[in-house]
Amino acid sequence: MAAAPSRHDVFQAIADPTRRQLLKLLGDQELPVTVISGHFPMSRTAVSKHLRILAEAGLVKGRKVGRETRYRLDPEPLLAVKQWLAYYERFWENKLAMLKHYVESGETDGAEPVATRTAVQPTKQE
């Protein structure tokens, strides 16, 4: 049986909404865990665990200042996410281009335009 990897990758790290919020919080400032934990409805220990996962993925860096550790965002590993998403961007661009063409051409295939359709009102059940 293969052992589980000890480090988390960027995709695992950002999969959790709390960790995404941590990244956003640390995007513009360096903060100690005591201040960071004040932004979340969880214990300081739980916040520290999330920070450890982010640090293992290389997304945050900690530095000692006196007795506390201050954390800051290191956005470089997010380039892997950007590169991965770049492949799928072509699908979004294609769909947007098709929608733009459809709207600008006025093609409706004989269907009534969306803006002029009347909503079907549900019947009242007694």
Automatic annotation (TrEMBL):
Name the UniProt key words of this record, in alphabetical order. Answer: DNA-binding, Transcription, Transcription regulation
Q: Pfam families attached here?
A: HTH_5
State any single GO MF term: DNA-binding transcription factor activity
UniProt cross-references to InterPro entries, sorted A to Z: ArsR-like_HTH, HTH_ArsR_DNA-bd_dom, HTH_MetalResp_TranReg, WH-like_DNA-bd_sf, WH_DNA-bd_sf
Keyword check for Transcription regulation, yes or no: yes
Region described as Disordered: 107-126
This chain belongs to the protein called Transcriptional regulator
Residue ranges constituting the HTH arsR-type domain according to the UniProt record: 1-93
Q: Could you read off the lineage of the organism from its UniProt record?
A: Bacteria, Bacillati, Bacillota, Bacilli, Bacillales
